[in-house]
Amino acid sequence: METIKISPSLLSADWLKLGQELDNLFDWGADMVHCDVIDGIFAPNITFGMPMIRALKKASKLPLDVHLMIIEPERYIDEFIAAGSHDIAFHPEASKRPHELLRKIANAGVKAGIALNPDVPVSVAAEFIDEIDFILLMGVFPGFGGQKFIPAVMDKIDECKKLIAGRNVYVELDGGVCLDNIGEMKRRGLDAAVAGNAVFAAADPASAVRALKER
């Protein structure tokens, strides 16, 4: 069984010392840096935008795993690409031109993904299966960190793995990931997990990252 990739969410980091937090993530053995971009309209929170991604890119030794929780992401996609995103996921229902948007992301050499909220069926991903590099499953409804995982989402991992069988597509899960549930997620074939408080609120974050990978 392969080791799962861990993408700690900066939503749970100390924003007064983000540069240090980025160095910490590299030292702790994280694989990516998850960047939650929320506009306050698609989801009930406001975080940061393109200037922050650009700044993070300059300081991060790890690839930036960017999740757009914004209305009409096509309005800003060129800037998010130029800012240095390694991969970009968006919610297809938030876009007026999701197919065109996926092609633009891919043509720029950036990994393209779609994000599915807990109440959005995996069948929605079938429409985009030939245009995506990954599916980002939401284990909670987007907006704020620290929420508890919605157990019904666990079965969606199985559904995604069936959908992408034989394709070079991976499955990532964001929301409510912790030591109590990541083992089951991994057994079901999850490829990458976003962890916020499970890493940043841990007494020993480096040990937490290792434990999440090895669970």
Walkthrough of the structure:
It is built from nine helices and eight strands. By secondary structure, the protein is an alpha/beta fold. It has a single domain, classed as TIM Barrel, CATH 3.20.20. Strands 1-8-7-6-5-4-3-2 form an eight-stranded parallel β-sheet. Helix 1 packs across helix 9. The longest helix has 11 residues. It is globular. The mean pLDDT is 96.
Summed up:
The chain is of the alpha/beta class and about 220 residues long. Helix content is about 35%, strand content about 20%.
Give short descriptive properties of this protein.
single chain, 215 residues, alpha/beta, TIM Barrel, eight-stranded parallel sheet, 33% helix, globular
Please tell me what the overall shape is. globular
- The helix content is 25-40%
Unreliably modeled segments: none
Number of helices: 9
Radius of gyration, in angstroms, nearest whole number: 16 Å
Please name the CATH topology.
Answer: TIM Barrel
Task: Please summarize the sheet with the most strands.
Answer: 8 strands, parallel
The appropriate CATH architecture is: Alpha-Beta Barrel
> In sequence order, what are the helices and strands, one letter per element?
EHEHEHEHEHEHEHEHH
- The CATH class name reads Alpha Beta
CATH superfamily: Aldolase class I
Proportion in β-strands? 15-25%
Number of strands: 8
Give the helix/strand class.
alpha/beta
Number of domains: 1
What is the terminal-to-terminal distance?
11 Å
